[in-house]
């Protein structure tokens, strides 16, 4: 009972930190002052404990998003160490967990693009990974309430991959990403404009509309 209570309190604390760092670069900088904080999050992801992995992934994503240029070399190495686990998770998980993991993967790709490419190519999962992104995009023409941002994080992943390595466009074309992007363009949802929901009300509107992400992805597909 005590152990369960301890697990719950840690999870709640992690969720609170994830919320506090969602929109605040300043809070991210404060969190990074904790010694070995990135390393601790890495361990939470690698121990395969469902109680912590997605909270840790949300926190890592926020830190990469808001404090990417503040990450030190040891921090970047810790990110590189979890890449294989993150990529494999994307193949296996569904729903809200998938949205969180792809969100982290896309920011790792943007933060350490060479490491991302090396892991994707060296691990020989590039084709499975690309197909997975296209399949999930096609399966979510009406994103559910539990993962309203799933298409947004996939589009960001696609964009960051092609911005870092134009050759990915060929692989996306092979799996008909252009057609999938056209479907997204035709089925845009107002719910995809918000980060959080309380009932039916959306809060924290994204600065970049999802339509702009579709346009950018199509540009990269055509240019490459």
TrEMBL record:
<dbReference type="InterPro" id="IPR016024">
    <property type="entry name" value="ARM-type_fold"/>
</dbReference>
<protein>
    <recommendedName>
        <fullName>Armadillo repeat-containing protein 8</fullName>
    </recommendedName>
</protein>
<dbReference type="InterPro" id="IPR011989">
    <property type="entry name" value="ARM-like"/>
</dbReference>
